[in-house]
TrEMBL record:
One term of GO molecular function: extracellular matrix structural constituent conferring tensile strength
GO biological process: extracellular matrix organization
Transmembrane regions: none
Species: Sphingobacterium phlebotomi
Residue spans of biased composition, Low complexity class: 75-92, 191-203
Region feature (Disordered): 1-30, 73-92, 185-212
Annotated Basic and acidic residues bias: 9-30
Protein name: Collagen-like protein
GO cellular component terms, A-Z: extracellular matrix; extracellular space
Length: 384
């Protein structure tokens, strides 16, 4: 008989010992918060992280100073990929049709709906055989709500219905809700009159005068305008008016543009009355013209007109040339005008003459036909 003996350093495994003492808990780990806005200082603790979902910014770790600057986790935009193949056509969707009458079987397709606008009936979905029975979308009629009426007098019992209200505009009385018997006693919506407030501080006044203001004029706080100089004084103090604070008269404005030229002056035009010629003097009929000067003869215009008026015919013509079958002309000298006739002109008491003297300065500014007495009369304001 033989024996084999194993000799090693370790012996057989002994039984399991008892559990040791529980170790100390470790520190909390960091957290990752999320939100759509930037993190505020009250979110998280030191060491935490924050992901902003709206733009992919990643904050952290948070320090005593705050969240710091974020790192954006969104990569650069990639290149556009190739267009994919077109998908198969989708099934036709159902439609909601409408009309005023009941839908016919020829209206719409299977799966469609129909709304009848006149009744509120809703049909569908349509089947292969018909539209089916509709559902009415109108709700049950609700009860009438209460109304608020208004007027200037007390409401009559015939006004409104039970539950209504009434506001009397003249007194602010509010009635209601109305009952089956009456409007009841109103509630007045006017608040109580408040106490009278304190008297306001007198406002300042603007006074005026043609001289410098004296200390007896006005009160403290008033103003004064010196109408002669346009100086403004004020506000007046307890010691007086003081010096003017400003002059209200602005600087002289620029010269305006020249006005339009006036009408030609006629003040220096001289005219006589009508002289009736009752005798025929072939050698000349003299008319005194004391204002006829040599200057008018040299630079002005001397006009002589004949008027014929027999009660039926009335006309005026300028003398100088052939007049009514006779030659008529005139000769002038300072202070006098001589009229000469030659021919068959009959002097019968219906003839009259007058002269018009126009200085050269006035004549140069006129534009009138001197042969037309009506134009001359109008231009130079000559009475008939």
């Amino acid at each position: 008989m033989g024996f084999t003996v194993s000799c090693t350093k370790e012996g057989d495994v002994g039984p399991r010992g008892e559990d040791g003492v529980h170790g100390v808990d470790g520190e909390d780990g960091t957290r990752i918060y999320t939100g759509s806005a930037a993190p505020t200082a009250d979110i998280g603790d030191i060491g935490d992280f924050y992901f902003r979902t709206s733009n992919s910014d990643f904050y952290g770790p948070k320090s005593d100073a705050g969240w710091g600057t974020a790192t954006n986790l969104r990569g650069a935009t990639g290149a556009t990929g190739p267009q994919g193949p077109q998908g198969p056509a989708g099934a036709a969707g159902s439609k909601i049709l409408s009309g005023t009458a009941v839908p016919t079987t020829g209206t719409g397709a299977v799966g469609d709906f129909y709304f009848r606008t006149t009744t509120g009936d809703f049909y569908g979905p349509k089947t292969a055989t018909s539209w089916g029975t509709p559902i009415n979308l109108k709700g049950v009629k609700g009860e009438d709500g209460s109304r608020i009426y208004s007027g200037t007098t007390v409401p009559a019992t015939s006004l409104g219905v039970v539950g209504d209200f009434y506001f009397r505009t003249t007194t602010s009385d509010f009635y209601g809700p109305k009952t089956a018997s009456s409007w009841g006693t109103p509630t007045n919506l006017n608040g109580a009159t408040g106490p009278q407030g304190p008297a306001g501080t007198p406002g300042s006044k603007i006074r005026s005068g043609a001289s410098t203001p004296t200390t007896s004029i006005g009160a403290v706080g008033d103003y004064y305008i010196h109408t002669g100089t346009a100086n403004l004084y004020g506000p007046k103090t307890a010691s007086g008016w003081g010096s003017p604070v400003m002059n209200l008269r602005g600087p002289q404005g620029p010269e305006g543009p020249p006005g339009k030229d006036g009408e030609p002056g006629t003040a220096n035009v001289i005219y006589s009355n009508w002289y009736v010629i009752d005798t025929y003097i072939q050698q000349g009929y003299g008319i005194a013209a004391p204002q006829l000067t040599q200057a008018i003869m040299d630079r002005g215009q001397i006009l002589v007109y004949r008027r014929y008026n027999n009660g039926k015919v009335d006309y005026v013509e300028q003398l100088g040339g052939e007049v009514s079958g006779a030659s008529v002309w005139y000769f002038v000298q300072p202070g006098n005008i001589f009229i000469y006739y030659h021919g068959t002109l009959v002097i019968d008491g219906y003839h009259a003459v007058r002269y018009v003297l126009i200085p050269g300065s006035v004549l140069a500014s006129t534009n009138v036909d001197l042969r037309d007495f009506n134009q001359v009369k109008t231009m130079f304001h000559i009475p008939d």
